[in-house]
Design a protein that fits this description.
Elements lengths: L2 H11 L4 E6 H4 L3 H6 L10 E8 L17 H21 L3 E3 L11 H7 L4 E2 L5 E2 L7 E8 L13 H5 L3 H4 L13 H18 L8 H4 L5
Antiparallel strand pairs: 1-2, 2-6, 3-6, 4-5
Helix pairs in contact: 1-4
The structure holds iron/sulfur cluster (2 copies).
One iron/sulfur cluster (SF4) binds next to helix 7.
Length: 217
């Protein structure tokens, strides 16, 4: 039986919008690892199952971040991942481990993993664009004790290369001044969002401009 294919189907049954595997070893030297340092989780064997969940812009509360509790959407992804972990063990006798979100907590570069698993491509907004769902997909992942072939990674299509890039021109922090994403400027905005939310004692409603103006589907 093809356990990997069954796991992808099961992920969808549990509520994931998309799911796909990539050999775990491939992520140890992914583009973000080369640029920003090694991931928190490295494995020489097994694979990583990447789960994506559509965050409907009409349900902005899925993205509201709460101190110490992540976001409602992320908690849904964690639950799907945990149920998949149990199912892989109980039904197929396959070990799996849900990976933390943050690199410093032992996580992986999720956007790289999603692209390398063939789920989408990195748009000029520096977000993963998943065909059919655009840039409004959030990710989580599990390490799974299964060897899988390397899928074809997603490539940016001509549509995005030729687009007038409202994602870049509309950024309130000018984080794309030279056409490349500058993390420091974006993080500055995130910090302001968090401080404002704390001052008003509410969940943080992060900037999503570069996601929401993107016409890609
Ligand atoms: S999230 Fe907001 S501040 Fe960050 S790059 Fe996108 S538009 Fe700019
Ligand atoms: S707004 Fe245009 S350039 Fe930016 S990511 Fe979307 S399709 Fe690509």
């Amino acid at each position: 039986m093809d356990v990997a294919a069954a796991a992808v189907r099961k992920a969808r049954d549990l509520g994931a919008t998309v799911a796909g595997f990539v050999p775990a070893q491939q992520l140890n030297d992914c583009p973000s690892a080369r640029g920003a340092g090694p991931p928190g989780f490295c494995a020489r064997t097994g694979s990583v199952l990447v789960l994506g969940l559509y965050h409907d812009p009409d349900r902005p509360e899925m993205d509201w971040w709460e101190e110490g509790a992540s976001t409602p959407g992320d908690r849904m992804l964690q639950q799907i991942a945990e149920e998949l972990r149990r199912w892989l063990g109980a039904v197929h006798g396959v070990d799996a481990r849900v990976l933390p979100y943050q690199i410093q907590d032992g996580g992986i570069y999720l956007k790289d993993a999603a692209v390398m698993a063939g789920l989408g491509y990195i748009g000029r907004n520096n977000l993963v664009i998943v065909p059919g769902f655009g840039a409004s997909i959030r990710f989580r992942a599990l390490w799974v004790d299964l060897e899988v072939p390397l899928p074809d990674a997603g490539r940016r299509p001509a549509f995005c290369e030729e687009c007038p890039a409202p994602c870049q021109t509309a950024c309130p922090m000018h984080a794309f001044v030279d056409g490349r994403y500058h993390r420091a400027e974006c993080l500055e905005r995130i910090d302001v969002n968090k401080k404002t939310a704390r001052g008003e004692r509410r969940s943080t409603d992060h900037c999503r401009v570069c996601e929401l103006v993107c016409p890609a589907k």
